[in-house]
Amino acid sequence: MKIADYAKHLLLAPNLEDKLVPPPKHWEEDGETKSLRIEKPGRSLHLQFSDKKVKIPRLEHLNSESNRGLTLHHFANHELMAIELFAWALLAFPDAPKSIRNGWIKTIEEEQVHFRMYLNRMNDFGVQIGDIPLNYIFWKQLGQFQTLESFSAVMSLSFEGANLDYSQVYAKVFSFFDDHITSDIMVYIFEDEIKHVKRGVRAFEKSIPNEKNSWEHYLSLIHFPFTPRRAKGYLFFPETRYLAGLDANFVKQLADYEDEYTGRVNLESVKKFGLGSELMRKNRLDSHSIQP
To answer: Is the pTM of this model over 0.70?
Structure first.
């Protein structure tokens, strides 16, 4: 199979199982260098995008299984969009270096595993995909993706970067409520997200002009109303960015960044858990509890 054919299949197939077909191990040469920018993915009726705003349950409400299921539904939606958009990138940037395209393919495969993990666990809590409206926040950034560097800045350094924080926060809170199965899923995904951000950093770093540092270059690649606020979670874990290969100046600038949206999220529910800064890592996982 050619990479372009596989990417089109993931993007245009309406059914969920088609979007979860893993990449083949061997590829035919594409021979196609024309950029193809698909404006919207194929989705069956129950997977359609919605403009209806549905808030994710507050952290203190995750003692309820139904709220855990709804939270994982939000996360599963993000994984599905990521699968589609990395497939989109394969079509939009056919001239990207082979190492970067191979990284996108591997990311797709890992996001598919993550989606199945979320799906299986939220099903345990009685929630099915499509039970609540599906936002399309990642797809709304399509106009930002003018180059593979801007794609990497938004998808990898920002959205996946923020998930380095969120996966830690939720791993800790699920563990607080003695839901170690779901906590372990979050830690497993955290470890993969380090690799995803690192792949984006590699693509991003190659294009930094001599007269700019990495933070300045990042700011030049994103456009308002998208801001660096999207690149970090309720709590910021600087160590995670070092693990992903970002430099000290970038990490400090991101830690210090504030804009008019800062503080809109109620952090009181975060603070009451006393989550601390120590990272939850994969070496503590029970592999039998987190099968996709």
So the answer is: yes
